Amino acid sequence: MKKLMIALIASAAVAGTAQAQTMAGRGYVGASAVTAKNTTVDANKADGKLFAGYHFDERVGVEVGATNHHKTDFANGAVRGDVEGYGAYVAAKYTMPVNEQVSAYGKLGISHSSRELRTNVGNFKQSDNSGYAGVGVEYKLNQTTALVAEYERYGKTKDFGARANVWSAGLKYGF
Fold first, then answer.
1. pLDDT 10s digits, 143-167
2. CA triplet 151, 156, 158: central angle to 5 degrees?
3. Domain membership flag for residue 1
4. Predicted confidence (pLDDT) at residue 34 exceeds the cutoff of 70
5. Which of 121, 37, 31, 51 is nearest to 85 (CA)?
6. What Rg, from alpha-carbon coordinates, does the chain have?
């Protein structure tokens, strides 16, 4: 009887610890391939994005990320040059589980974006601090790894370079 009581107490302690671990916050990191239309060269370009976040619980979290719009050369008649830029954000994230593997989420926060245009007739730079919003879907491959796909808006409309609207698909790793 004494052994049975010890076994029950130990089982309850292990179950309580396991439940606390699933309810506790979890961090994550990820990388995505992104695409945004580059208005200077009138084409979609593939770039990269890195992000990290923390889930306070199953639904509420915070995320930071940065997207690099790499240097793109162009020539338009006698005007030649290149354009590049980046966008960075910090946002609150709300996740709604659809089933065991699929979740939908929305993000709302602030962003900083910068675009630089260098040509043989002059250089131009445009930066802004503005709102940030995103919506996406996540598909869990296992307990720590998930595929993500999302649409994001980095602030105001840009006059040159990559647009503020970004589509991405990538991989997220939780820890």
1. 999 999 999 999 877 777 777 789 9
2. 95
3. no
4. yes
5. 37
6. 22
Tokens found for residue 122: 């002059």
pLDDT at 11 over 80: no
**Number of domains comprising the chain:** 1
Q: What would the mean pLDDT of 60-70 be, rounded to a whole number?
A: 94
**How far is 70 from 132, CA to CA, in rounded Å?**
20
* Enclosing H/E stretch for 45: strand 43-55
17, part of any domain: no
Instruction: Provide the 3-class DSSP secondary structure of residue 6.
Output: helix
Domain span at residue 30? 25-174
Q: Specify the pTM.
A: 0.81
From residue 167, how far is each of 37, 38, 151 by CA, in Å? 10, 13, 5
